[in-house]
Every structure is written in structure tokens, then in C-alpha cells.
UniProtKB/TrEMBL annotation:
Top-rank taxon: Bacteria
InterPro entries: NAD(P)-bd_dom_sf, ODC_Mu_crystall, ODC_N
Lineage, broadest ranks: Bacteria, Bacillati, Actinomycetota, Actinomycetes, Kitasatosporales
Gene3D superfamilies per UniProt: NAD(P)-binding Rossmann-like Domain, ornithine cyclodeaminase, domain 1
Organism the protein comes from: Streptomyces sanglieri
Full protein name: Ornithine cyclodeaminase family protein
Length: 314
């Protein structure tokens, strides 16, 4: 029997809403992100190899992803990879998926799931940092979840930022660009998305309005961050899992090293947010901003890969 190969078209067919629903169903069904297997990091000549296993009673899977920092200069994608999906009881392979396309769909879906539970139905001003595939994916995912009135794209390369703004306009959203650092834009935002490779804070976190939501997905190492200590210290902080965030999220680990944040200050993990079991109460009742930090976890890839495989079955 030939192993089915599910490519980018098959994965994109699930769509942002399908991916968000798959993630929410996994968490509502009892999946505990805190017990999910950890990601393994391997340094290789081209950059970094990430090995991400996960399992449920029904399916098991592993993503092998490459992070190649020099690839964009070669007109190649920075993120590469493959995903092997297996039947859990027998461990027989079910399908091989395009790992880069899977990541491009699932990372925005994780953010959109948090946004589904952290924001109201209308986003008046979305500020989007970044111009790569994740920025496009996040824009599409947010538009699938929320009515967005205005978008400001902040990017280091003007023509790339304008291309993304033009894409947003084609989707029917009022969009324009702004030069970094974008502090003036952040000060009027109710949703800020950070989808960059920056290792240093992108904006002044003291300017983020109370009640706004900030999502950061660009870094997964302890020495890199997209938001500053000021934002973290005044926010209700939500993470995918405490264990993953406290080992990989520089956005939190750096403020902790500075004495401005503690592990016990984490408001909730994503499962607690989705099921309404946040120890700190509903984030909507928190006076300051809401900050969701994502580092990416294997259970998310598994949930979305299983949904793609299910929908692609004849």
C-alpha cells in the first residue's frame, strides 16, 4: 500500500476555521498540553532541526522541521519539514504531509483559537508585525474569526509590507503600512500580532491599551523575544503550556530573569482558556492587556494533521 502524500493544497483545503476547530476539539476533549512531549532541538549545518512528537489514543505523529536562517537569501523558505501521521494502536503509517504547509496553517490557527476566547467579535485596529508566510497566515486566520475594520502592517522592508497591505485590501479590509517601530500604531490597537524573526522587542509595551490583545509567535528560544518586559509585567499572560513556555519562551524568561515576572503569574494555559478553567479567572475581567505567547507544540500539528487526513479520505 502506497503511503498517501498530502501536500499544500490538501492542507490549505482544511482552512483556518477547520484548523481552529480541530485544535479546540482536542482541548475540549481533554488533551492536556502540560503532558505533551517536549520538542527536541538539534543543531545542524543549515541551522536547526526540530523533532516534534505527539500522540492521542487514535493517532500518533511526528514533525521533523528545519529552520534555515540563510534560506530567504537563497529564495528558499526559512521553514522546511515533513509530518508523518500514524495509527496509534498499530503505529502503521497513515500519511505523509508537507510539514512547512502544516506549520503555516497550524501556527495562525493556534493564535486564532486564543483570539476566539480573548477578543470581541469586532477588531477595530489590527497591527501586524511581519511580512512573511506567518504574517499572511495570521491575517487570513484572524479574518476568518473576527470582523476587522482596519489593518496596519509594520515591516522592515517597505515593498514587502505594502504587498501584505495590498493583500489585505483585496480581502476587503482597509489596510496601510507604517514604519518600525510602530509605537504610534500600537497605542491605538486592540489586537497586535507579532510574526517576525526579531530577537529584540518590536515596540514599547507600555503603549498597548488596557483591554487589547497581543499575540507573539515568532520566537521559540530563551534568548529571543518580540515583546518587552513592560508588556509582560502588566498583562494577563496566556501560554500553550506552562512547561513549554518556561523552557523556550524568551518573551517570558527574560522578564523572569529581570525579576519582573514569575512563573506563577501565568494567567492560564490554552486548555484552561478554552474550557473556562483559568485559575486567574476569565481574562476578559483583567484590567490590563492580554498577552498570548506561542512557541509551537507537537500536539497542535497532530490535531491539524489528523483533521487534514480525515477530510482528504475518499
Amino acid at each position: 500500500m502506497n503511503l498517501p502524500l498530502l501536500g499544500a493544497d490538501d492542507i490549505q483545503a482544511l482552512g483556518p476555521t477547520g484548523a481552529v476547530d480541530a485544535l479546540e476539539a482536542a482541548l475540549s476533549g481533554g488533551l492536556d498540553p502540560e503532558t505533551a512531549p517536549a520538542r527536541h532541538h538539534v543543531t545542524v549545518p543549515g541551522g536547526e532541526l526540530l523533532i516534534m512528537p505527539a500522540t492521542t489514543q487514535q493517532v500518533t505523529g511526528v514533525k521533523i522541521a528545519g529552520v534555515a536562517p540563510d534560506n530567504p537569501s537563497r529564495d528558499l523558505p526559512r521553514i522546511t519539514g515533513s509530518y508523518l501521521l500514524l495509527d496509534a494502536p498499530t503505529l502503521l503509517p497513515l500519511a505523509l504531509l508537507d510539514g512547512a504547509a502544516l506549520t503555516t496553517l497550524r501556527t495562525p490557527a493556534v493564535s486564532a483559537l486564543a483570539i476566539r476566547h480573548l477578543t470581541g467579535p469586532v477588531v477595530h485596529h489590527l497591527v501586524l508585525f511581519g511580512t512573511g508566510p506567518q504574517a499572511y497566515g495570521h491575517l487570513d486566520a484572524v479574518l476568518a474569526e473576527r470582523q476587522v475594520e482596519r489593518v496596519t502592517v509594520v515591516g522592515r522592508t517597505p515593498h514587502r509590507a505594502e504587498a501584505l497591505a495590498a493583500h489585505a485590501r483585496r480581502l476587503g479590509v482597509d489596510a496601510r503600512t507604517a514604519q518600525a517601530p510602530g509605537d504610534a500604531e500600537v497605542a491605538t490597537a486592540d489586537l497586535v500580532l507579532c510574526c517576525t524573526t526579531s530577537a529584540a522587542p518590536l515596540f514599547d509595551g507600555a503603549l498597548v491599551p488596557d483591554g487589547a490583545t497581543v499575540v507573539a509567535v515568532g520566537s521559540h528560544t530563551p534568548d529571543a523575544r518580540e515583546v518587552d518586559t513592560a508588556l509582560v509585567a502588566r498583562s494577563a499572560v496566556i501560554v500553550e503550556s506552562r512547561s513549554a513556555a518556561l523552557s523556550e519562551a524568551g518573551d517570558l524568561l527574560i522578564p523572569m530573569a529581570e525579576g519582573a515576572f514569575r512563573a506563577e503569574d501565568i494567567h492560564a494555559n490554552l486548555a484552561e482558556l478554552v474550557t473556562g478553567r483559568a485559575p486567574g479567572g476569565a481574562p476578559a475581567g483583567f484590567e490590563g492587556p492580554r498577552f498570548f505567547k506561542s512557541v509551537g507544540m507537537g500536539w497542535e500539528d497532530l490535531a491539524v494533521a489528523a483533521a487534514v487526513h480525515r477530510d482528504s479520505a475518499p
